[in-house]
Amino acid sequence: AAAAAATVTAEGRGKDGATETFDVIPGVEISSAATFTIALDIDYYGVLYVASSITIDQLALEVTTLAVGASIRIALYDATTDWQPDTLVEDFGTVSAASTGVKTIAPAAGTRVLAAGRYLTAINSNGGPVVRAFRGGARYIGLRSALSASPFPERLQVARTYAAFPSQGTDWSTYGTGSTPTNWFVVFRVSTP
Which residues of 78-106 are buried (b: 16+ CB within 10 A; e: fewer)? Predict the structure, then answer.
């Protein structure tokens, strides 16, 4: 007898019914928040796993300490099975890091459907702003093979001059390690779970 196809239930999103839809990081269980200084000319990647198709209509990050004249560019890539960036899904453009606060940006078409699969958010800055970092667990990236007291890959990064993101992602070659879970910087508003 043929096996029955597995059914994947949509993850959903928090919504109070009238005024607010909560932001999410697909596939990540957030456990705390901190701050992180974004270095000049570095691509920082965040691992996402979308279990079932979702539609996003906004991305956001929070600048907690400004950098005069600075911007942060945000993109999304398909990810390989090694969690390296593959094909560019969308370069969403820039948000200002020259002032503090929550910075939002929408997909060029207003919404973007993300099929089930692996993705990486990417950010790069032409300054040194401090942003909100959301820490949590994502079973997909794993732990360093050395384990130890600092087993978490806190960030995935590679040096690249600040510019539009390329159509083929630049593989990350460095990762910071520590005793706290991985940092994520970009959150999504899901309009259709």
Answer: bbeeebbbbebbebbebbbbeeeeebebe
Q: Give how far the C-alpha of residue 55 lies from the chain's centroid of Cα atoms, to the nearest Å.
A: 15
Q: Exposed/middle/buried for 133, CB within 10 Å: 0-12, 13-18, 19+?
A: buried
Task: Name which of 166, 175, 193, 191 is nearest 77 in CA terms.
Answer: 166
Model pLDDT, residue 71: 98
pLDDT the model gives residue 6: 52
Helices (H), 61-178: none
Do residues 71 and 107 make contact, with C-beta atoms less than 8 angstroms apart?
A: no
Strand order in the sheet with 71-79: 85-96, 71-79, 117-125, 42-50, 152-159, 174-178
Position 179 scores a pLDDT of 85
pLDDT at 11: 64
Question: Cα(56)–Cα(9) distance, rounded to whole angstroms?
Answer: 17
CA angle, residues 66, 72, 78, in degrees to nearest 5: 145
State which H helix or E strand residue 3 sits in.
none
For each successive 10 residues of the chain (193 residues), what is the average pLDDT? 55 71 87 94 95 94 97 98 96 98 97 96 97 84 83 90 97 88 91 81
List C-alpha distances in Å: 167 to 49, 182, 185: 20, 26, 21
Report yes or no: 59 and 15 within 8 Å, Cβ to Cβ: no
**Chain centroid, CA 33 distance in Å:** 14
